[in-house]
Amino acid sequence: MTTSTVLIISALCGVGFGYAAQRGSLCVVSAIEALIEGQSPRVFLSFLRCSLWVIAVTLPLAWAIDGDQLDRIAAPSLLTIAGGLAFGIGAAINGGCSFGTLIRLGSGDASFVATLAGLAFGYAVQSYAPGLNLSAPVIGRSPLEDADLVGIAALVAAAAFCLRELLLDGMRECDKRHWSPERSAMVMGAAGGVLYALHGSWAYTLAIERGLAAMNTGDIPNLDLALIFVACLAGAAIAARRLRVFRLRFNVRDVPKHLLGGTVMGIAAALIPGGNDVLVLHALPAWSPHAPVAYLALVIGATGALFVSARLRRRAAIE
Fold first, then answer.
1. Which residue, among 261, 226, 242, has the nearest Cα to 28 in the 3D structure?
2. How crowded is residue 223: how many other Cβ atoms within 10 Å of its Cβ?
3. Which of 5-19, 32-46, 254-268 is predicted least confidently?
4. Which among 80, 56, 206, 48 is positioned nearest to 144, based on CA atoms?
5. CA angle 312, 313, 319 (to 5 degrees)
6. d(Cα 194, Cα 214) in Å, to the nearest integer?
7. What pLDDT is attached to residue 38?
8. For 120-156, what is each residue's pLDDT tens digit?
9. How far, in Å, CA of 269 to CA of 119, rounded?
10. Where would I find the H helices in the chain?
11. For 258-291, what is each residue's pLDDT tens digit?
12. Torsion, Cα of 46, 285, 278, 223 (10° steps)
């Protein structure tokens, strides 16, 4: 496959990923808020669906390419838990997780650029601050890297689940404007799986971290990952226009919270390692032991921060 063909496929997958994320409004913070309000857990569970779609799509492609695409797996540790809790708190402060930030940027909210700046600053702080340049230890290759008994069994199970999802898709309730969270997870997982097989870990939060590392050593950042991020933004913007929610705006008052939230998310993502996009799209599909621990800690951190925020707002309203 030629380089130009890979880039074209990657751009199309990026557009599809961003489009689906916007149509389904998939964001961990929003999903947790819905659970707190007693609403359906469908959005929350869709991230796990997304991981299963990534497995079903990535494994056969990765085995055919015969590459080394899947993430190295890391052992869970106290850093994993601390990083997960911190990332959840940072996402709550920011008003959106990694996916939510992409969605808001795609809908024209330029104040979320501060989140990207915060992520970059957080990565820099974690890399150079004494005592913070730590991360969970890498313990080896993914158990799904090879087409052996374990890998084939995982693929068959994921493929069976995805077939079920396809059969149920037309039966699920959704309006003309918004996709069901299951359909969004389907497209995001399929597109993300192709990108994973072609590029390895590609999530934009990783692209920021790797770009900073490359510039620090005088190397050229990976422009393929930058192209994918731009394509994801374009897809989210196209969907926002279709939903008639695209409006270019910049709220100066929101910049401090996005900058603070992004910084906390950046430091935390370096500790875990990975933000919720990396966990859902790369680490969980690679069966990394640290991924479920980090994701659970992330959910607990975000939930706690949202509860505290709601209580403070109620107290302020009373006073």
1. 261
2. 11
3. 32-46
4. 56
5. 90
6. 25
7. 87
8. 999 888 777 655 556 667 788 899 998 899 999 999 9
9. 9
10. 3-24, 28-36, 42-65, 78-94, 98-106, 113-128, 149-169, 181-199, 204-216, 223-243, 255-271, 276-278, 290-318
11. 999 999 999 999 888 888 999 999 999 999 999 9
12. -120
- Provide the Cα torsion 13, 204, 24, 294; round to 10°: 120
Residue 254 in contact with residue 242, Cβ under 8 Å? no
How crowded is residue 222: how many other Cβ atoms within 10 Å of its Cβ?
A: 16
pLDDT range class, residue 2, cuts 50, 70, 90: confident
Tokens of 150: 């374990």
The Cα 275–Cα 144 span in angstroms is 21
The answer to whether 198 and 60 have CB atoms below 8 angstroms apart is: no
